[in-house]
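Before the break, one more example. Copy the sequence into your notebook; we will annotate it together after we see the structure.
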Amino acid sequence: LLHCWSTSKRREAAQKTIELLKKMHQQFNVEPDTVAYNAALLAFANDFNRGKQAEQLLRVMTAPPNTVTYATCIKAWTNSPGSPEAVERSEALVKEMLIGGISPSAILWSNMISLYARRGLVEKATDILKHIEQPNVIVYTTIMEAWANSNRVDAFENAFTLLQKMEANPNITTFNTLIKVVEKNPGPKIKNLREIKLMWERNGVQANVRTYNALYAACSMATGEDASLQFVLDYHRFKLTIIPFLRYSKS
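Here is what the structure looks like once it is written out:
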């Protein structure tokens, strides 16, 4: 039941899991174990701005926390964009578990990368790579998301270099994220988009609807560059009929 509520993504899910934990103890005289608490924490993590409440639950656990406990709590902070203390609290949780002799899992480090990526903290996100023995394409793509949110002149150059050096094969989500780097940061839009196009063709990756939408969004931010809209039109050759929510170029 706890797992069902925690994965339901319903607004009342977190409260329902707390009620179930209390019922286990009060009505059935059963002390919740670590797995039960982790399931309840997941309900908070799958909601928004519940980081503080998730950590409060961690503090009242009557069972010993494990790496899943901390990873899930950090995920709750990651999904708390309205909490300015999210980074500080997550880093404190990592220190706490290390002091307690609990080894961080790959999932926990991935959650930390997501935390930094959503806030544009590229150096912190990249630094996590040294803790992951075999980074996968999701890890690299999330670091590119950090560059997308960095608002830095060198964002595309660094993200593109990361793409060239990554040890996993990039997928279309990787390239879509790289297009977002072009859209959201300073720099020559069309020149950079052409470099991305050549790279994904070289890797044999098939573009999707999100790719074309991302291209339009990036082109709409181009200023003083010729034929930005024509670049997109020429590329996907009349596939626009399947694309919702088009944003047209200002050029």
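The radius of gyration is 21 Å. The chain has a mean pLDDT of 88. Try to locate both features in your own notes.
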